[in-house]
Each structure stands twice: as structure tokens, then as C-alpha cells.
From TrEMBL:
Residues 76-238 form the DDE-1 domain. Coiled coil: none annotated. Transmembrane segments: none annotated. One of its GO terms (molecular function) is DNA binding. This is DDE-1 domain-containing protein. One of its GO terms (cellular component) is nucleus.
Length: 243
């Protein structure tokens, strides 16, 4: 058969070439497996938890100005921010921040970090097993007080171990180890939206100069950025994961 005949045959019957996306198929199947334990819960009672690194002092790489503006050294001061929210977007819980110092100098005697975030510290400003379990236990106590039973979707990070952890109103659900981050709603765009809102809040300019940010201000901006993540964004990201 000639190429022209074959092209006409395919066109008449709506036949076209499609690549086989193995990873996408695998992710879809993983989402199905991961979602089964969630089917007994309403969207209000299904939560996702994840953490990220945040260079909280890092300003924008450029600015709009009528003349060249002096640059500044990029800050590498990093903290960890943990977020969790439910599938219905009705509960975006207070962020948890892990910094280096237990009581930074900028806190002074009157600043209360827990007005804005839950606050923890260790020398590396990383999520640890102890901090993770403290966060989860506090959530479980809240649920017990409210008379609710919920499920929390987590990744398989080593700090998310459940050794010795006893919960009454919260079930922890870990997808299969081979799961990609694509089925974690927070990784599907919620964290990206949070960071975008933080960056917008961070970009405070005065006469073309970027203001420095201390940890007190960062905690307030983290709270505001999380508040500015819309319900539409949250629900779209949950829907995108297919779980």
C-alpha cells in the first residue's frame, strides 16, 4: 500500500499515533491503590501533610526601576515549613515552622510565635521524628475534642515513622513506597502556590531597596501566605492527583 492510501485510511477512521507514557500509567494505578483506604472518609476528613524548605530571607532576583539597582547577596538562611489541609479545603491548619534557635533574638520578650505558626527548633532546622510525632499527636487531640475521625495522607519520609505512636482519632496512610509525588496534593501545586504568595508578600520595596526580613516577620508572612492560598487551588490540586 502507498503512503497516501495509508494516510487516507487512518484519517477516515480517526487513527493517530500515541506515545505510551509508562510513568503516567503507573501514577494513575498508584493513585487508585492509594485512594482505596480514603473511600470511607468524607473530603472534610481526608488530610495531606508535607514539609518543605524555605529560604525565608531570599528576595526577588530583579526589580522594576528607572535606573540600575544595586544587587544584594542571596541569603541561604533556611527553615522548614510543614503544611496540612483537607480535601474539601475547609481546614488549612496552622503551619508548623522549624528554625535553628529556640528563642531568636528578634523574638524579644513579647513576641509569641504561636500566634502565627506552631514553632519548633533544632540545630539543622529539619523535620525530625520527635517533631513530627508531636504535630500529629496535637492534631489527634484536636480531633478527639471535636469527636471526629480522620485520615492523614503522608509520604514515606524517614521522619514520618510511627514507632511508638498511639493515636485514637487519626489514621495515618502511607501510599506504596514507589509512589511518585504526583499523588500528594500538597506537591501537586498547593506548596507552589504557598511559596508564590510568600514571595509576593516578601517583595517589600522602599526606594528601590529590598528590606531585610527577620524570623518574626517571616512567621507572620508564612501565616498570611497560607491564608491567601484559595479554596479553588486546594480542591483543584486534590482533584489533579486522582485520589
Amino acid at each position: 500500500y502507498s503512503k497516501g492510501w495509508l494516510a487516507s485510511f487512518k484519517s477516515q477512521r480517526g487513527i493517530s499515533h500515541h506515545c505510551l507514557h509508562g510513568e503516567a500509567a503507573s501514577a494513575d494505578m498508584t493513585a487508585i491503590v492509594a485512594s482505596k483506604p480514603l473511600q470511607d472518609y468524607s473530603p472534610d476528613d481526608i488530610y495531606n501533610f508535607d514539609e518543605m524548605g524555605l529560604f525565608y530571607k531570599l528576595g526577588p532576583s530583579g526589580t522594576l526601576a528607572t535606573a540600575p539597582v544595586a544587587g544584594h547577596k542571596k541569603s541561604k538562611e533556611r527553615i522548614t515549613v510543614a503544611l496540612f489541609c483537607n480535601a474539601s479545603s475547609t481546614d488549612l491548619r496552622k503551619p508548623s515552622v522549624i528554625a535553628h534557635a529556640k528563642c531568636p533574638r528578634c523574638f524579644g520578650k513579647t513576641f509569641q510565635p504561636t500566634l502565627y505558626t506552631e514553632y519548633f527548633s533544632n540545630t539543622k532546622a529539619w523535620m525530625t521524628l520527635v517533631i513530627f510525632q508531636e504535630i500529629v499527636r496535637a492534631f489527634d487531640r484536636d480531633l478527639h475534642f471535636q469527636g471526629r475521625h480522620c485520615i492523614l495522607l503522608l509520604d514515606n519520609a524517614s521522619s514520618h515513622a510511627v514507632t511508638g505512636l498511639q493515636l485514637t482519632n487519626l489514621k495515618l496512610h502511607f501510599p506504596p513506597p514507589c509512589t511518585t509525588s504526583s499523588i500528594q496534593p500538597l506537591n501537586a501545586g498547593i506548596i507552589r502556590a504557598f511559596k508564590a504568595h510568600y514571595s509576593c508578600t516578601r517583595t517589600v520595596q522602599e526606594k528601590g531597596r529590598i528590606q531585610t526580613v527577620d524570623l518574626c516577620q517571616a512567621l507572620q508572612m508564612i501565616r498570611l501566605a497560607w491564608h491567601n492560598v484559595t479554596a479553588t487551588t486546594v480542591m483543584n490540586c486534590w482533584h489533579h492527583t486522582g485520589i
